[in-house]
Amino acid sequence: MAQPNQVTVDIEDDEPAEATPRHNALHRLDSVSRPAPPNRNNLGLGDRLNSVFREIRPLVEHARMGNNARLSLPTWLPRNTPTTHQIVEVGLQRPQSSIAHVNLGPSAQTYVVTERGTPPTQRPQPPSHGVSNSATNDPNFQSEDGTQQVVDVRATLNLLIRYAPFYFLLFIKFMYDSREGIFTFIILFCTFTHSNSLVRREHGKQMNRSILALLSELVFTSSCIVVVHFLFGHGKLLPNVVMFPGYTELDVWELLWLVVLTDLIVKIITVDIKILVTMMPAFILPFQKRGKVYLFTEAVSQLYRSLLTIQPWVFYLLLSYEGSEKMVGMFLTSVYVIAKFIEVLVRLRLFKNATWTLLQSVNLGTKPTCEQLLSAGDSCPICHDDYTTPVRLGCSHIFCELCISAWLDREHTCPLCRAKVADEPTWRDGSTTYDFQLY
Predict the structure, then answer these.
(1) What gap in Å lies between CA 126 and CA 359, rounded to an integer?
(2) Which residues contact 386 (CB under 8 A, 6 or more apart)?
(3) Are 195 and 166 in the same domain?
(4) What segments bear the compositional bias annotation Polar residues (predicted)?
């Protein structure tokens, strides 16, 4: 008795294994051949396959509808019957696998149509032109780095805020324990600042300078130095100014206190010398030559201040260690001497240039002729008054000798055309440096 043909369609969705390659394949599995019944339908095998595939096509497409993928079975299966163990690979990737089992009857062969693919989360994206796939250009990585930095900053701020009362207590204790030294520093620094600005202002006035203001400032600064030495300096400041100190054991804070206050006192004495220069009458020291004297005074002061700190530092470094640790003190002293030698060379260069400038008799220009005075006008461009001792510069502009000398103490170019006339006017206006000599 002939057994009727059967078509069994099973559709399964399996997750692809990691070891399975990401491509589609058509596998044909041979079933055990059975003897054909004597009375079979006269249809060929190809016609039967086409009929079966047309029937199962809607079912397979419906099973893959959730992945938004379209699959045409006629494009997969050729018209001709595939041979045994034939594998046809199709380069389509799907997020899931679909398996269709086709049973054509007891005497037919079984075909298994397998669709393999990668899951949606693992589907590789095609590279686009002009877009970098590196992690450094990925905005997600950049946002994560920015978030991590914000977290680190917040943690640091929280730590600082947590210990803020402790810092405040230490600061209050330090201010109270150092109240005498801080008060002395404020007095000397304010005195130096006021006297330094007064010298610059009065030097700019030249003939109209106030002798009374300069004399009052001189008395005030001298009194301030004496009061600070006896009341707050404990007799240590003035001996250190003249390089004859009487040292006792001191720590680093006492060393810095001694060095800073001594440096301020020397700078105030420098300002006092400049006050005396400013108070001199014009017939003793002409105004056009006072800039050189100011420069020389400042160069001597800076050189002396650089040498003044050698004794305290060497004493501190050598006497900080005893016994076998003396070698450490000698090594630190050697390093200090080398660093100090380089600084002293810089101060010596400034002193040499200032001395050379002081000894030179440099004329600012030449005496203009009557025709040149007529073409330049009747008044000086700086003071807007009649010419007194007119001088013609190399740029052909004419000024009063006194006016252009005062101008070149602050600038080094012509007031009208900005042509370079003299060297840099550093320290020629009567000012004193604010830098502290700490070592």
Answers:
(1) 82
(2) 378, 379, 380
(3) no
(4) 130-145
